Batch of 2 targets.
Target 1
Amino acid sequence: MQKEKIDATEYELKEKVVHIRRVAKVTKGGKRFHFTALAVVGNSEGIIGSGLGKSNEVPDAIRKAIEKAKKNLIRVPIKGNTIPHEVLGEHVSSRVMLRPASPGTGVIAGGAVRAVVELSGISDILSKVVGSTNPLNVVKAAINGLALLRMPQEVADIRGKDLKELDLPKSYLN
């Protein structure tokens, strides 16, 4: 399936810095400090992206991270205020389980996953991080999981069947 290219200029994107890390290079003259920033951007209507920026100064690292995030946007299928089905996103040794939740549940997620889910526009979801809790890997795993989501009509079209032939629960057919 062809990945859709999304233009960041078309959307009013919100930005959130998830994590800033100071890294040091040890030289004979002492330690040289640099910064990495992890940022997530989204429009709260199903568009989400993440980026990692590196620089000698924190504001430059944040700016670079946001620019990279705007170049890596994906579209997330949303059913009401939640996701259409359960999914497991993986990246390196981090796994993020995302489960649809009933209306009024809210966002049950930790820091890195919460940023991704809220900026994508999902307001009712259950999540669990299994394995590594490194924020960079968790954000990438969450976005990979959201990228795996498919609406029932999409699956029916791929299989060349009618939606009623898929043997889905009644809650999916609404």
Target 2
Amino acid sequence: MTKLTKNKKLALEMIERDRLYALSEAARLVKEITFSKFDASVDLDVRLGIDPRKSNQMVRGVVSLPHGTGKETRVLVLCTPDKEAEAKEAGADHVGLDEYIEKIKGGWTDIDVVITMPSVMGKIGPLGRILGPRGLMPNPKSGTVTMDIGKAVSEVKQGKIDFKVDKYGIIHTSIGKVSFEPQKIVDNAKEFIATINKLKPAAAKGTYIRSIFLSSTMSPGIKVDPKGLEDKI
């Protein structure tokens, strides 16, 4: 524990607390302040000036990161037999229907994304209480309820992510790995922020993007200057 505390202290000393960092500086710094022995995720936390309790201010969407997330995404496809080959060819990790529905009812959720088709949503509906809280419930808006199963699987495998604002008005997401070169972190972050800007609710008043923090799994957050990012739409 002493070592971790020492590293955290060192990381905090490397960040100027009251400074707003340019995204390119933050991308370089997050690599320097991460002392973990594993390839940590690079995370982005964006606080929005919205009231997420109001349905007309909900911000939810999908984005395809230009350089992917660097993470192996485990995909389950729940489909009819005629779609199984298409799902497997696209790279799905698990493919089937009734047997996986039973597994999920038994508590199995060892997956990152669930993709399905409209005709079987009736069977999947009852799984909402298990999948919903884990952010795994398929949704037409995020492209995970579709007849184009192969395309949906390919996009997820290539770095397409689904995001949603939480009850505090913050969107948390991983945009890469510490092993990424800084420019790739910058590219992914810009794409993510641009997507959030496009989703700005008409009912949102005042400053839309309140703050942006870049961090890794084990590091403190670095405050990023939103100016210069908001116009990248």
